[in-house]
Amino acid sequence: MINNHRYCVIMCGGIGSRFWPYSRTNRPKQFIDFLGTGRTLLQMSYDRILPIVPKENIIVVTNAQYAPLVKEQLPDLQDDQILLEPARRNTAPCIAWAAWHIAARDPEASMIVTPSDHLITREREFETSIIKGFEFVENNNALLTLGIKPVRPETGYGYIQIGDKVDDSISKVKTFTEKPNLELAKVFLSTGEFFWNSGIFLWKAATIKEAFHKHASNIATQFESGAEFFGTAREKEFIENQFPACASISIDYAIMEKAPNVYIECVTFGWNDLGTWSALYDNSSKNKDHNVAQNCNLLAYNSTGNIFAVDGDKLIVVDGLKDYIVADAGDVLLICPKSEEQRIKQMVNDANLKFGDKYL
Amino acid sequence: MINNHRYCVIMCGGIGSRFWPYSRTNRPKQFIDFLGTGRTLLQMSYDRILPIVPKENIIVVTNAQYAPLVKEQLPDLQDDQILLEPARRNTAPCIAWAAWHIAARDPEASMIVTPSDHLITREREFETSIIKGFEFVENNNALLTLGIKPVRPETGYGYIQIGDKVDDSISKVKTFTEKPNLELAKVFLSTGEFFWNSGIFLWKAATIKEAFHKHASNIATQFESGAEFFGTAREKEFIENQFPACASISIDYAIMEKAPNVYIECVTFGWNDLGTWSALYDNSSKNKDHNVAQNCNLLAYNSTGNIFAVDGDKLIVVDGLKDYIVADAGDVLLICPKSEEQRIKQMVNDANLKFGDKYL
Prior knowledge:
The first copy, chain A, has eleven helices and 17 strands.
């Protein structure tokens, strides 16, 4: 039986600029059928959590401009399950709002907080891990983060070093390390003490509220000032006034790297943050020429190792292209070597400077 | 004063398959603002002839499916100035119909026949040459073709060798030669006796009708059988029944290479048949990186020598592409090295086989 005090917060406000123009401000990555499965990343995140928490306890936090997309893609959500941020303020204010909102509804609540735009495989292991995590945070004054066992010396992820073990999968956190260089990543991999930071968290609403009071008191004070409004008709107005005044700061920086009661559950399900075109390429099915064709018909000659990502059914005919990204969406077409993808953000800036924001 | 017996026939039924997908069956090359001038190639052909023949004597022959495009682009045309072919039958039947149609309206008519999808520069010289040509065919029982003085050993064009001179620019035709190899083209260029076949013709309607009777009698017989219908309400029905039964044959093959009274006027205006992407590239204005951007905003990095041709205002962001064709129109995107453009026809065939005709 599903525990009615368990909640899920799906963070869904990102703009996915690294995948521009396939992901655009008006329809970011999490709202796209990014892997060609027939479900968008947001829908996959929702489907994945359904066996674990009651449907009515799933809360989506997103930017106000995406309200229509969320309602269209998750028609079962009630309006009070969608928290609309009036401004983009990174993850800490987003999570604080969700915590105050949920705690007002259920003081005994525990919650999982998860991004909406990652890939997770081996969902049975995911389910088992999440349930164990819920049980741990419900019985301990703990902030729990999920760590993924690394399978390659990835330099694009954050790493968490484990400390004293609680049991075979849960430990105290010793250190957080942002993206290491390749040499360091190889050392991390070899020691067995380092795990990828998945950005998936579990805690009791009361525990994370307390952590905000201790480690990010400005944010706690702002939300506490509206304590009486959460769960009432005045919550929306309060948020519209207060939220934009919050500092823009990540939950890792505001809480996780400071709090003494941070734990890691080392999990074994498959995970990829789909943070780069190369990651998308690696996680997509390829044809015999090792090309990936997302949402398009492809006729390729002398072309291998490319990823074609298209918004809307289209025929792409390509000759003599190797290891490129071809992304076509609405009024923007990007053609860029996969090896240069880290420059796409600069290209978006250049487009903005030269042509204004209509292409963002 | 403009001579009221002079007519112009603009042939406008081609499908421009070499420029697929920029040129597509539903909107071929001649209906596109192919050079980014603000006027389509058809409109430019019309504008060019306006100072020479009376507006009401300009006849456009096209495939029935393009009637709306012709009317939209040339709103001054009356319905009886647009001849709609019920089937594609190459240039000889097209020209025969126009000749019978015009002769019925004006037995003294002379006419220029011109493609609608070529580039012509130095239009004052064009005007002078055409008027001289009209005067020649009006005073002689002559079929006159315009020859362009070659400026490079082009292997993609047909050549005409001049024979006995009539005056400083008009001569009898000695031979026609289809696309020569490079060696031969260089010889042609060096002798000064060979001129590019422009596909622009002048003659009296009566002279070309007589030539059809002598050299393509099947076609002449077909059109003669409806002599009473031309210029009447029954012309349309007659054509719909008879035209599809015509042999599909070019005017060069049916008449010009056979008739004894064929002359060439060697002209000096600039001309290009815009028959290849490379020709379009050469005749388009380039930015500092030697890229051509047709109908699009371009943000190019490490990219030179490309041509970007887009249907509809779009932003193209490209990195690391050299000497490519990028053509984007509706639901088709083509990316192909300029050096491989002769393979595009095969790609169109492949697309047709694999996905049906929806992308043609």
